[in-house]
Design brief:
The chain has 739 residues and is mostly helical. Helices cover 62% and strands 3% of the residues. It has a five-stranded antiparallel beta sheet, with helices on both faces. 33% of the residues are buried.
């Protein structure tokens, strides 16, 4: 624990310190010391377990080669441990410099048209780091948010969140990934170390964050700050009043500012003075207690609705319109009072209108499927009661009722009957809606409890989908490697043949048998291997063996080539499922052909070259099959690139983005961008269950966006988008149609 600050050093830091303030430097140094000391301890604990974990894997290895990878990894870790620790702690110290900043994530290099094992390994590392960071950011959201606010204060008011905080799980994981550059080991060894880093170091953030928060609170930095889990979606920026509302107050003062802003917008739109008193003869406006009682009656009537997804008629249609809801509410108040009130208090009316506009937005938001819109629309009365009980619902992004609606909307965004055949997601959303309709009276803690249950449900779905997504990505990756290898083999052979007219036997061996061997060699050994170089040299020599024999020198050259060709064919063809008898027949035909060319056999021996080739039917004619694709590649390379404005939008897409595909004559399908191939650049899309929906080349996806057969669904939380739309609508002159 860092040394506690003396009372004389405690100053009021509710407001930000100016950049360069000496007090800020002292506090940041204290944070740096606590973080590096704790992380050094956790890193040491992790490395103490690496040897045992690698030894266990070595004992269970499937073969000697894999076992040696783990033993080599153990030796390399012992040798480079100090260098990794020094590099990691150095990066953490640098990140916590005068202007804290998270490291930039490195991306795996793409392999354009070529196989790259390095790219594969870096992709696996990147996925491991990203998964680790995402899991811990969700787990530690409350403490991390409070820590970011306090770090922002002592660093001159800079804005820190999960994306740029130097102590966020993503930054600490990325720093460790960069430090792992010191280690030259098999990717399987590195992936094990990342798992241990997650288990020992990232798990230790549970203690580090509260420790730093407590120390900064003792020093007077936001001591009254209320922690709340902050939604992980991107910040939604707007100008003027929209900015104040969308940002959401993080303390009581900011919340009041947002509510005041909304109240001013309502007053300006209605043309009333903010403090105008009601007419003297008017009946007293209903109290909040009366409003809640009337709403409870309406809520009970809605909860008793028999249909699981009520149609938008009757009371449900009325609840979709603020004016109709107010009329229903006034009627119910009249039934309870014995006399219908003539007006409501200004703030209560604003709240009712605001909730009404929120649910109007939900029913008009095509980000949500219609079935889910109808389900969520039933929540209007519970949310109106929540807003009357706690007006900060619209001002604080961490408010549990707001977070719950955002979570439901995010779950609903990717829903479709096809992706939810077991009704798991639909039933969960319906269950939350019915719990609120039946159980919510005035206990706002119900929203927090439902948030926790829904978060656990989403985590279960995420884990299941991740496994399916991984299998889909691996299968797609394997197919792409095979396609690229086939195309590469065909290109190498066709480029070497050029315009020559080869004898049918020679051409058949190259285009079918040897092309298959090239593919196998590329997949197993890679393009930089000695085996692949020798396989290409055989192609050159085999083609050279068909050149005219006119003199003693050319005859001597052919005689020298013949034994090498025979050895290469025996070795290569045996690896691509040739039977020994087929190899012997093929070599016999070749020998007859070469002897006839050398003048060592009568010309009629050439008849052995006629008839079917001694190549099994199972050996695919790769060159012939890939020739059209190669021709298309050449034409695409010489043609000007298509001018599709949406290409920039496609390149900006990140995994996790949801799109809706609406092909002509087919039902719309929602899918998430799961993976971008490092080899072909194709975009792989999966549904909520992690099953493949489609994959597109960038220009194909851009063309679909341009044609309207695909659209990107907003990533911002539902509540933020709704508030932006409401503020924009309230800012328009009265009478302007709603967008």
């Amino acid at each position: 624990m860092a040394e506690a600050y003396e009372p004389s050093k405690v100053v009021n830091l509710h407001q930000r310190l100016e950049p360069g303030h000496p007090r800020g430097g002292e506090l940041l140094q204290a944070v740096r010391d606590m973080a590096t000391r704790r992380l050094q301890q956790l890193l040491g604990q992790m490395f103490e377990h690496v040897d045992d974990a690698l030894f266990d894997l070595a004992e269970k290895a499937e073969n000697n080669a894999a076992q040696m990878h783990y033993f080599d990894g153990m030796r390399e870790v012992r040798r480079r441990r100090l260098a990794i620790e020094r590099s990691y702690l150095s990066q953490v110290t640098r990140m916590l410099g005068p202007m804290p900043v998270a490291p930039r994530a490195t991306t795996a290099p793409s392999a354009s048209g070529e196989l790259s094992l390095v790219a594969d390994d870096e992709l696996e590392e990147s996925l491991a780091v990203t998964s680790m960071a995402s899991k811990n950011e969700a787990r530690l959201a409350q403490e991390l948010h409070a820590l970011n606010q306090r770090l922002g204060v002592i660093c001159g008011g800079i804005k820190l969140d999960e994306s740029n905080s130097p102590l966020a799980p993503a930054a600490l994981a990325e720093a460790f990934r960069q430090a792992m550059g010191e280690l030259e080991a098999d990717v399987r060894v590195k992936l094990l170390i990342y798992k241990l880093f997650d288990r020992y170091v990232m798990a230790g953030l549970d203690a580090l964050y509260p420790e730093i928060n407590a120390e900064l609170m003792r020093a007077g930095v936001l001591p009254q700050f209320r922690q709340g889990a902050r939604h992980a979606a991107p910040e939604h920026a707007a100008a003027g009043a929209a900015s104040a509302v969308a940002a959401g107050g993080q303390d009581a003062g900011a919340a009041e500012d947002v509510l005041e802003t909304l109240s001013q917008l309502f007053n300006a739109r209605r043309g009333r003075a903010p403090t105008a008193p009601p007419p003297a003869a008017a009946a007293p406006a209903p109290s909040v207690h009366e409003l809640l009682g009337a709403l409870s009656v309406l809520q009970s009537q809605l909860a008793d609705h028999a249909s699981p997804v009520p149609a938008s008629t009757g009371a449900q249609q009325s609840a979709a319109d603020a004016a109709a809801l107010k009329s229903l509410l006034m009627s119910q108040l009249g039934a309870l009072r014995g006399a219908r009130p003539s007006a409501m208090a200004g703030m209560d009316e604003d709240t009712i209108d605001l909730v009404g506009m929120l649910f109007e937005f939900i029913l008009a938001d095509d980000t949500l499927p219609p079935t889910m819109q109808a389900l969520l629309a039933r929540l209007q009365i519970p949310y109106l009661k929540a807003a009357l009980l706690d007006r900060r619902l619209f001002a604080q992004r961490q408010h549990p009722a707001r977070r719950l609606l955002d979570m439901l909307a995010e779950l609903a965004k990717g829903w479709s009957p096809e992706a939810d055949r077991d009704h798991r997601v639909f039933d969960r959303v319906k269950s939350v809606v019915e719990r609120l309709l039946h159980d919510f009276d005035d206990d706002l803690g119900l929203f927090e409890r439902l948030c926790g249950e829904l978060a656990a449900f989403q985590e279960t779905l995420r884990r299941r989908a991740e496994l399916a997504e991984q299998r889909v990505a691996e299968a797609t990756h394997g197919r792409e490697r095979l396609e690229l290898a086939r195309r590469r083999a065909a290109r190498e052979i066709l480029d070497r043949i050029g315009g020559r007219a080869l004898p049918p036997l020679v051409h058949g061996v190259l285009a079918r048998a040897w092309a298959n061997y090239l593919v196998l060699t590329l997949l197993r050994q890679g393009e930089d291997s000695l085996e692949f170089s020798e396989a290409l040299r055989f192609v050159d020599e085999f083609i050279a063996s068909t050149l005219p024999v006119r003199d003693a020198e050319s005859r001597q050259t052919l005689r020298q080539l013949m034994p090498r060709i025979e050895r290469s064919l025996r070795r290569g063809l045996a690896s691509v499922a040739f039977q020994e008898s087929d190899i012997e027949r093929l070599l016999a035909q070749l020998t007859g052909y070469y002897r006839e060319r050398l003048g060592e056999a009568p010309a009629q021996a050439a008849s052995s070259m006629e008839g079917p080739l001694p190549i099994p039917d199972s050996i695919q004619p790769i060159v012939e099959q890939e020739a059209p694709a190669l021709q298309a590649e050449r034409e695409a390379a010489t043609a000007p690139p298509p001018e599709i404005p949406q290409l920039e939008q496609v390149y900006a897409l990140k995994p996790g983005t949801w799109l809706e595909f609406c092909p002509t004559g087919a039902p719309a399908e929602r899918a998430k961008l799961s993976w971008i191939s490092p080899m072909s650049g194709r975009y792989l899309f999966v549904n909520r269950r992690g099953l493949k929906v489609a994959d597109y080349a960038p220009h194909e996806l851009a063309a679909a966006l341009a044609a309207g057969s695909a659209r990107v669904l907003p990533a911002e939380p539902l509540f933020d988008r709704a508030l932006d739309a409401i503020v924009d609508r309230l800012s328009q002159p009265p009478g302007t149609p709603a967008a």
